[in-house]
Design a protein that fits this description.
This protein has helices at 6-17, 23-41, 60-72, 104-117, 122-129, 162-173, 180-191; strands spanning 51-53, 56-58, 76-83, 86-93. Helix 1 (6-17) crosses helix 2 and helix 1 (6-17) crosses helix 4. The chain has seven helices and four strands; from the N terminus they run H-H-E-E-H-E-E-H-H-H-H. The protein is globular. The chain has a two-stranded antiparallel ribbon. It is mainly alpha-helical and 192 residues long. It folds into two domains: 6-152, no CATH class; 161-192, no CATH class. The model has no long low-confidence stretch (mean pLDDT 89). Strand 3 (76-83) and strand 4 form a beta hairpin.
Length: 192
Amino acid sequence: MPAMSRNGQVLRYLLQVASGIGHTKLAKFAYLADLEARKYLGRPISEFVYVYDQHGPFDSTGFFAALEELKGSGLVTENQVPCGQYVGYEMFPTGSVVEFEFSRAESEVLRYVAETYLSKTARDLCDDVVYKTEPMQGAKVGKPLPMDKLNRDPKDKLGFSVERMLAGEASAAAGRTRPLAEVMDELRTGCK
């Protein structure tokens, strides 16, 4: 199987966590994951270029190209479902195994977004969350969103780092810890 695009990987990963969602929620999950990644990692996870279109932040060309890539490779199935006067979609990952090229931190951001917002309807997700994000404030329809202003400064050593937190968790899980009493004794000894 040919290598999957970064955007295809993002959509497939989100669908593995939030199976059965439609186009709107999938697109907004990708947007929110990129926002969170910019805040905590200093960079987006996807290569989507978000523009304020009639339904909020979206990269229609990139989104539908990635979705077609997934469907064409047999990695996603898509069913039409009636939604009043509109046709909706529900998408499911197939049983095919996918090798993702995400760091552990990127995977955690994607998982967090999908699990956090899964229970919201598409309308509530947009109205209560997406339209209130910083890049959407003052944005103009048809114009690119100012996503870069959310990038975490990589030189900020004091700010929260998902990578450092995950490395600490992995270290503790592997048994590479010291009792607090031992650390405190060492600090007291060093202070004398």
